[in-house]
Amino acid sequence: MVSAELPPQSGPPLTEFELSVGERKILQFKRKPQITAVAELVWNALDANATEVHVELRRSVMEAITDIVVTDNGHGMTPERARTAFQSYGTTWKTSRTHTKGGERILHGRNGEGRLFAFALGDRLTWESAAMVDDGVVGVRVRGNADHATIWQVEETEPTRGKPGTTVRISVPQGKPLSRLERDDAAANLTAKLAFYLRAYPNAHVTFDGKRLDPSDIIVGEPIDLELELPEDYAGEDPPPVVTFVEWNKRMSDRKMLICNADGIALGEHGSDWSDGIISFTPYLRSNLFNGLSGDDLHGLTMSHSGLLDAAVKAVQHHLAIRGAQISAEVVRKLKTEGIYPYDDRPATGALAIERQTFDVVITAARHALPNKKAARSLSVNLIRTALESNPGDLHTILEKVLALSEDDRRHLKNLLDSTDLTHVIGAATTVTNRLNFIQALRKMLADERLRKDLREVDQLHPMVAKNLWMFGEDWNMTRSELGLTNVLQAHLEDHLGEDVVLEHELEAVTQPDGRKGRVDILLFRSRKDDNSTERLVIELKRPTVKVGPKELDQIKGYARAIIDDPQYSGVGSKWRFYLVTYDYSDKILRDIRQKDRPAGLADVQDDYEVWVKSWGEILDAGEKKLRFFQEQLNYEATDDRVTQHLRESYSHFIPEFLAAEGQSATAASSCDTDSHTPGSSQPRDAAELQS
Questions:
Q1: pTM
Q2: DSSP 3-state assignment of 670?
Q3: What is the C-alpha to C-alpha distance for residues 498 and 495, in angstroms, rounded to an integer?
């Protein structure tokens, strides 16, 4: 492959310029994940053909990180290249290339954003670089500062080294927390992001805080490619998209799916952390479709490639179930060989079967924490069995104090117990309990005038509702937004519903003058398809301050009819449901939504669509009626403390600040009394409670 020559040195010795993108856009990079920011700096070095990259964390006498220094022996930058690179946003010398200078390696970045990730680590940034020009070495220094994020300086200097290379220095403000870089698993998390590259190019060496990054140190076995059941849209892709499942021998704190090109070069992250109490792993979704994606493109993956993402998630879930069963079977076999497995081989039924399955889950998740000596090992196994049999409330204490299981591992185990299908009993009970808690929690916020006033729609009410679409029908809980639907919904939005209504995927742009998420009406939309039919759900969430009357009802009816009559959907046989959801509605529309021989709330019904008006009270009442039988079987009582705690644990980012703060204060106060509690004195909780 023909490589581009480095441009000759030219221009003034000092250039100050304004970056061609606004300060707000630049400062968004301050919120990027810290390990990802370090990875971007390493990628820039590797893209410059560096064979040695060293990430140094410099600390004060108090062990606080004061500076981060990334040094490499790549081809460096000339002053001219530095001016070109740092003055533009979204363009780079890599844009038109697939391989590094000389065609030696695959390039990672093509969007000109990587350098700005450094703002996630500190406020003052300096690049010192040396590059070969003709037969000599030239030097350049580049400076940037978060206080004036658009202003950059490029200065020609005497080279500080005799050979090409670059040193990036990041000054960390006093008091800035860099906890992700100080965790024990920081090097492992960084290794996971670079794993495929380091395996493909073993001559490239990277160190982090003095530790050499070597994937072979933490990989269990060989990576496994999981075949995907892809939608027809992806049938022509060559090579086809695949998820490569990599298992690690230590727990990682970064557990998102990595979006990669077909070679496994990580371009970004997607989705929430994978939580599994048995396996530590990273799924790499690999496809040439992702080559050259920008940060904005990655944020839009859910809309542009929802089918591919769904297939990837299902493949990972399926493999986790198989792999978890394999590990559990091996753990049980080993305990039986040692003679300390606490159950006999007779078939278990009823409660004993559930207890035994739960024991297998717990002991598998805690396998690395079990003592090696047989007497202590046998004691730990029997303590777990006794806790499950007689007092599940003791299990938490045993895992924490006897086996010294870390808080992170205990949290993963709790999540596993909540979601594992133990003859459907524990999983179903957990789902019912969480839904009852959510119903009562939402009641609490809507009924309390102060909470209702502070509840923001964009970043609080909307995400909570989006996570609980079962309230509008069980089948809607696992559906996703449909990309093609957005254009049609947007086209008729302002004409029928007004300027205050925003489609849910545009909510990031809605803010008030003080920077907080604004108050608007929100349009949620979901699609559900099978071989025979298509159903679409559109929900307009009205602000609690809006009392729905004839005007709002006419608007949603007009909107529904405009959508149905749109040429894209006219006559295609879809069934639509439009919901207008409000805190309260006017008596003036009671005749419309209380019609004879129609369900309450149904205001307009045709062959291809329905329009409903529902208050939150009616929706929550209906949800409770569906769960009433389970509520009685579980002897569940929705106490104020229970539902408030559920809000703080499951929706801490989506509730008014003062409610979350009260929870933190209560937790801090209760922790002072922990030593006075005897084992078993607390009430059973979570999955263990549901078995008792």
A1: 0.51
A2: helix
A3: 6
Q: Which residues, at least 6 apart from 164, have a Cβ–Cβ distance to it below 8 Å?
A: 73, 74, 75, 76, 130, 131, 132, 137
Structure tokens belonging to residue 277: 């109490």
For residues 386 and 342, the answer to whether their CB atoms sit within 8 Å is no
User: What's the DSSP call for residue 31?
Assistant: G
Rounded mean pLDDT of the chain? 80
Tens of pLDDT along 194-214?
Answer: 998 898 889 999 999 999 999
C-beta of residue 228 within 8 angstroms of C-beta of residue 312: yes
Q: At what angle do helices 425-447 and 350-365 cross, to 10 degrees?
A: 80
Q: Which amino acid is at 139?
A: G
Residue 545 CA: distances (Å) to CA of 507, 509, 519, 570: 19, 22, 10, 35
Q: Give the neighbor-by-neighbor strand order of the sheet with 534-541.
A: 501-503, 521-529, 534-541, 575-582, 609-615, 602-605
CA 315 to chain centre: 18
Strands (E), 573-643: 575-582, 584-585, 602-605, 609-615
The mean-pLDDT minimum among 89-98, 318-327, 613-622 falls in 89-98
What DSSP character marks residue 273?
P
The angle formed by the CA atoms of residues 626, 438 and 256, to the nearest 5 degrees, is 115
Residue 606 has pLDDT above 80, yes or no: yes
Instruction: Report pLDDT digits (tens) over 73-117.
Output: 999 999 888 888 887 665 554 444 545 565 566 666 555 577 889
> What DSSP state is assigned to residue 348?
P
Cα–Cα distance for residue pair 664/621, rounded to 1 Å: 30
- Nearest to residue 654, comparing CAs of 415, 437, 440, 462? 462
Q: Which residue has the higher pLDDT, 511 or 552?
A: 552
pLDDT for 216-251, tens place per residue? 999 998 999 998 998 888 888 888 999 999 999 887
In the three-class reduction of DSSP (H, G, I as helix; E, B as strand; rest coil), residue 332 is classed as: helix
Rounded CA Rg of the chain: 29
Structure tokens at 201: 């190019």
The separation between CA 569 and the C-alpha centre of its own chain, rounded to angstroms, equals 33
Residue 687 φ then ψ, to 5°:
-65, -35
Beta carbons within 10 angstroms of residue 37's beta carbon: 25
The first and second tokens of residue 633, run together, are: 């079987």
Q: What is the per-residue pLDDT across 623-655, written as a single tens digit (0 to 9) for each?
A: 888 787 555 654 445 566 666 676 676 666 566
DSSP 506: G
Q: Give mean pLDDT, residues 11-39.
A: 81
Q: What gap in Å lies between CA 169 and CA 191, rounded to an integer? A: 21
Question: β-strand 124-133 against 205-208: which pairing, if any?
Answer: unpaired
Give the pLDDT score at 425: 45
Describe the chain by its helix, strand, coil percentages, rounded to 5.
45, 20, 35
The identity of residue 217, as a single letter, is D
